[in-house]
């Protein structure tokens, strides 16, 4: 028992010693509370941000986005894309539309960042299909994947607005990579192929939606501005993919498509930045220019410089009065123009304030005269008789006088404030330096607000002080003159009725004459059919019935029919047959008879030989 009691304190001492050694080791490494502050600060400091360089050949932004020939500089559009001066409509709000825009040249950036500003708007609660941002080895101008080609080699960031798989996880932003050998699973929204995703509603927002896509040190990050605020830097994290391998060179692009539902997919800007790690110099474009191109640009520069010198000499010869004056003194600089505009604005403000001050003085004089006249009237009438009809009581008079005094006090306060404003503007008109002028912007805003307040107070006072019978009223409209009397109206109705009846009678006569002519023609056709024993026509019978079954042929047609009928009867008679025989050629008849006889004879001989 004694041994055990002796070993207990030793064990506690050893444990305390071990704890002391552990704390000392942490102190030496800077992890404890007593560590080196410099080391702790260095460990807690985040890595320095990369260097960003804007690449204009891989970007577009309005206004003046489209050239005169309808193309976008350094970009190619395909499908149903519609470029305009301030945006590119990738896919319009029509069914089954596809469009895309792609950079013409490949980008060879190790690290890059893309900022896309777009709008997706539609009338329905649900839209389709969506929009995609691409970085691929080849251009996918047209295809089934949001308007771009399938089996791409690179990465696509899809802003999918339609829920194809029915899981109610759309609209969503999905990152999908491809090595050029995988088909996109459109029916399931690429759920099995997605590297990362987030659910964000980007349709029908009050402000344009912004997406920042960063590829830095093989890490792809997507940040999104939800479109509820105009703040350009208000981004929130969406998705991130580590160890992302993409082609070393590729095209940037953006595409969109619609299906049975349709949205307008408008891209306002596409800005590309090359990222360089801290401590590394970004590659300069001068190193990529060959010696021949440098010589060509140098020759063009020298040529333009010579033309400029010639133009200067011609201008100096044409303007000898400007000899010896530097060219900078002839034209107004930007700073001088801004100072001149500021001084002109101050002068206008000063004049307006002076005019308001004069109007306030006039109001004060008028109020003083009004108060003095009321005071005199009170002194003359005395206290007044309370119950007498038509008189004003002493209490009402006191109320009016107190009101006028209050108005005078307020007008005096406004006048004093106006005087302070005049002094302030007068001091601003003689600034000591240009910096003082630029610092006076806040004073101008205060003066503007103060002028609005003074104007509103003056209008209120004028309306308050004007008697009810003297207040301006809206002018009454003059009686609307009657431009049509009863007699004129009756005459107009009678004339219109007569014209209408006459037109109806004319139409009836014309229709009757037309029907009569059609019936006469039908009657003629019936006579001809009876003459030549042809079948009757039901249409002709109907036309004759429409004419009332009382149709006669015209005299000239009847004579022609009668003459033809007499000629036919003469031909059918015996005399007509004899006359026809006289007119026949006997030699011809004889020859025909001999030929017939010869043919019959030959036929008989052939039959006999056969027997």
Question: What are the salient characteristics of this protein?
Answer:
47% helix; transmembrane helix; single chain; seven-stranded antiparallel beta sheet; 17% strand; membrane; 611 residues; disordered N terminus; alpha+beta; signal; L-type lectin-like domain-containing protein; 16 strands; Lectin_leg
Helix segment tally: 13
- Helical fraction equals 40-55%
Write down how many β-strands occur, each being a DSSP E stretch of 2 or more residues. 16
Rounded to an integer, what's the Rg over CA atoms? 52 Å
Helix/strand class: alpha+beta
Mean pLDDT: 76
Report the uncertain regions: 1-13, 19-45, 385-390, 431-439
Please outline the major beta sheet: 9 strands, antiparallel
Tell me the β content: 15-25%
Succession of helices and strands? HHEEEEEEEEEEEEEEEEHHHHHHHHHHH
Say what oligomer this is.
single chain
Distance between the termini: 167 Å
Overall 3D form: extended
Domain L-type lectin-like: 52-275
Subcellular location: Membrane; Synapse
Pfam families: Lectin_leg-like, Synaphin
Protein name: L-type lectin-like domain-containing protein
Structure description:
The chain contains 13 helices and 16 strands. The chain is of the alpha+beta class and 611 residues long. Strands 1, 2, 4, 5, 7, 12, 13, 14 and 16 form a nine-stranded antiparallel sheet that branches. A hairpin with a 2-residue loop joins strand 12 (209-216) and strand 13. The protein is extended and about 150 Å long.
């Amino acid at each position: 028992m004694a041994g055990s009691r002796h070993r207990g304190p030793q064990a506690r001492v050893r444990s305390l010693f071990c704890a002391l050694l552990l704390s000392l080791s942490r102190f030496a490494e800077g992890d404890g509370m007593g560590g080196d502050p410099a080391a702790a600060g260095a460990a807690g400091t985040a890595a320095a941000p990369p260097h960003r360089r804007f690449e204009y050949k891989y970007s577009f932004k309005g206004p003046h986005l489209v050239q005169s020939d309808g193309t976008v500089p350094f970009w190619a559009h395909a499908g149903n894309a519609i470029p305009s001066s301030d945006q590119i409509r990738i896919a319009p709000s029509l069914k089954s539309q596809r469009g895309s825009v792609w950079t013409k040249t490949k980008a060879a950036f190790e690290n890059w960042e893309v900022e896309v500003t777009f709008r997706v708007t539609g009338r329905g609660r649900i839209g389709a299909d969506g929009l995609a941002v691409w970085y691929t080895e080849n251009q996918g101008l047209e295809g089934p994947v949001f308007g771009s080609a399938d089996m791409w080699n690179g990465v696509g960031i899809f802003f999918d607005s339609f829920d194809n798989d029915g899981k109610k996880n759309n609209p969503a932003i999905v990152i999908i990579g491809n090595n050029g050998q995988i088909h996109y699973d459109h029916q399931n929204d690429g759920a099995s192929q997605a590297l990362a995703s987030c659910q964000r509603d980007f349709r029908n927002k009050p402000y344009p939606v912004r997406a920042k896509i960063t590829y830095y040190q093989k890490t792809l990050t997507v940040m999104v501005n939800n479109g509820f605020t105009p703040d350009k830097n208000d981004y929130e994290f969406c998705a991130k993919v580590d160890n992302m391998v993409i082609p070393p060179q590729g095209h940037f692009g953006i595409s969109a498509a619609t299906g049975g539902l349709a949205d307008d997919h408008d891209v306002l800007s596409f800005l590309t930045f090359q990222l360089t790690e801290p401590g590394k110099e970004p590659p300069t474009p001068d190193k990529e220019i060959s010696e021949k191109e440098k010589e060509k640009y140098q020759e063009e520069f020298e040529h333009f410089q010579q033309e400029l010198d010639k133009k200067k000499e011609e201008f100096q010869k044409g303007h000898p009065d400007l000899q010896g004056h530097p060219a900078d003194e002839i034209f107004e600089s930007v700073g001088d123009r801004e100072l001149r505009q500021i001084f002109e604005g101050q002068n206008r403000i000063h004049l307006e304030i002076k005019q308001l001050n004069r109007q306030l003085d006039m109001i004060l004089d008028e109020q003083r005269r009004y108060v003095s006249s009321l005071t005199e009237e009170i002194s003359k009438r005395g206290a007044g008789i309370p119950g007498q009809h038509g008189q004003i009581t002493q209490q009402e008079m006191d109320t009016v006088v107190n009101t006028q005094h209050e108005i005078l006090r307020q007008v005096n306060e406004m006048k004093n404030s106006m005087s302070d404003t005049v002094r302030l503007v007068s001091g601003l008109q003689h600034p000591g330096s240009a910096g003082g002028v630029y610092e006076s912007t806040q004073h101008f805003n205060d003066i503007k607000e103060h002028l609005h307040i003074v104007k509103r107070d003056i209008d209120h006072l004028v309306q308050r002080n004007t008697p009810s019978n003297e207040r301006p009223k809206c002018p009454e409209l003059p009686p609307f003159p009657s431009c049509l009397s009863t007699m004129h109206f009756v005459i107009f109705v009678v004339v219109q009725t007569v014209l209408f009846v006459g037109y109806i009678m004319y139409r009836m006569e014309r229709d009757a004459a037309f029907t009569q002519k059609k019936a006469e023609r039908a009657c003629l056709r019936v006579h001809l059919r009876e003459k030549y024993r042809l079948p009757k026509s039901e249409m002709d019978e109907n036309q004759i019935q429409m004419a009332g079954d009382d149709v006669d042929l015209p005299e000239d047609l009847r004579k022609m029919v009668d003459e033809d009928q007499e000629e036919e009867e003469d031909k059918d008679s015996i005399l007509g047959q004899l006359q026809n025989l006289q007119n026949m050629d006997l030699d011809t008849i004889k020859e025909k008879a001999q030929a017939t006889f010869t043919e019959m004879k030959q036929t008989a001989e052939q039959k006999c030989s056969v027997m």
